[in-house]
Amino acid sequence: MSTDGGLHIGIFVFDDAEELDVVGPFEVLAAWEQHSAIKPHVSTFSRDGDGVRLAKGMRLVPSRSADDVGPLHLLVHPGGWGTRALVADPTHLDWLRHVRAQTPVLASVCTGALVLAAAGLLAGRPATTHRDHYDDLAAADPSVLVDTEARFVDDGDVVTAAGVSAGIDMALHLVARLETPEVARAVRRAIQYDPAPPV
Asked: Which pTM value belongs to this model?
């Protein structure tokens, strides 16, 4: 937990989370720490603090466990194959509802939105997810207003991003929203993020 009074940001990691869902937002938010006047601090955490194996084989050792991550201002929940187990895990869904009650901003990347929906946290709200999973999001909670056009959807205290790389755009948006667009542009330049796909 940040000890300097700044914003505390946690990225939840789990087995079979999609790599870029985790490290894309982490890269943006960690770069924000270096360009910010408001002292944000980002860390990763898993349920028990143990290391995880992400969807394509990357291994990651988180900074903390869910029990010691402390109060968060922003929680980022990635997607990936591991969400299939999480949407059916009552313990995880109960934990998420508990954390949501004391966390000002909740964000998801890709199929992380399915977990939020399974926990009842997207009821009646606009949201998005990976384009291959719009129907799954609607099935998880038919009251969700699924946005099939947006890279990310900001509904105030809940922000959802589309598939994988959209998490970078969402994180830059959150930097602009939580501090200033100027700082977000400085972060974008620092990580040399200027999409121009070669194919």
From this structure: 0.95
